[in-house]
Specification:
GO terms for molecular function: 2 iron, 2 sulfur cluster binding; 3 iron, 4 sulfur cluster binding; 4 iron, 4 sulfur cluster binding; electron transfer activity; metal ion binding; succinate dehydrogenase (quinone) activity. The protein has 250 residues and is of the alpha+beta class. The model has no long low-confidence stretch (mean pLDDT 94). It has helices spanning 36-45, 114-122, 143-153, 160-164, 177-188, 196-204, 217-221, 228-249; strands at residues 6-13, 22-29, 73-76, 79-82, 95-98, 105-107, 110-111. Helix 3 packs antiparallel against helix 5 (177-188), helix 5 packs antiparallel against helix 6 and helix 5 (177-188) packs across helix 8. The chain has 8 helices and 7 strands, in the order ββαβββββααααααα. The chain has 2 domains: 6-111, Beta-grasp domain (Ubiquitin-like (UB roll), Roll); 114-249, Alpha-helical ferredoxin (Fumarate Reductase Iron-sulfur Protein, Chain B, domain 2, Orthogonal Bundle).
Length: 250
Amino acid sequence: MAEQKYIHLRVRRQESPQAKPYWEEFKIPYKPNMNVISALMEIQKNPVNAQGEKTTPVVWECNCLEEVCGACTMLINGVPRQACSALIDQLQQPVELRPLTKFPLIRDLMVDRSIMFENLKKVKAWIPIDGTYDLGPGPKLAAKTQEWAYELSRCMTCGCCMEACPQVNSKSKFIGPAAISQVRLFNTHPTGEMNKEERLEAIMGDGGITDCGNSQNCVRVCPKQIPLTTSIADMNKETVKYAIKRWLRK
């Protein structure tokens, strides 16, 4: 009979934002093709640590389980990524799991990413419509524009870019690369362009594009390979043009 293989997890735990963090280790029976989420679900079914002691189930967040919602983002062996697409067979053991550090902790591996959604509100990252009646067919975009705009639309506000950015910290108001990239996306849309100047004003303000330190970490960790640095460069150009235009109006 073949010897039972085990997965070794090392999880940074914290019962509340005010509680003292600690490490807890788990040994999970190995199954082929497991991801980190399935390993955490095994702990949930039988919350016993590596020392054989009863413990509480590890708290984490997930939703789609197919790298679309971004909810299960955490630090896996020190790298910000989604637990649903992190396959155990491709990870070095012990697999170390930690919560993201740039967002308020809720408990264990679960954090509050509300700041990302608040930043999207700041830059008006939506297409406004006038009422609820049928507006007819929407405006057409050139195929070439559709191609790169689609890349930007794949952003799932997972927080990887914020986690990797050295400019995002407790002393900075920087809105982060994701929100800036969404300004580029919605300013390109023929209907969204009507609010172009409002969005440019938003990223020219406190915590806006001038706070970017150009470390380019964001584009390296983005799970959707969104060209974030290209968006930031383009918005730099657009804000300079808008600033000159605004000055000439005076």
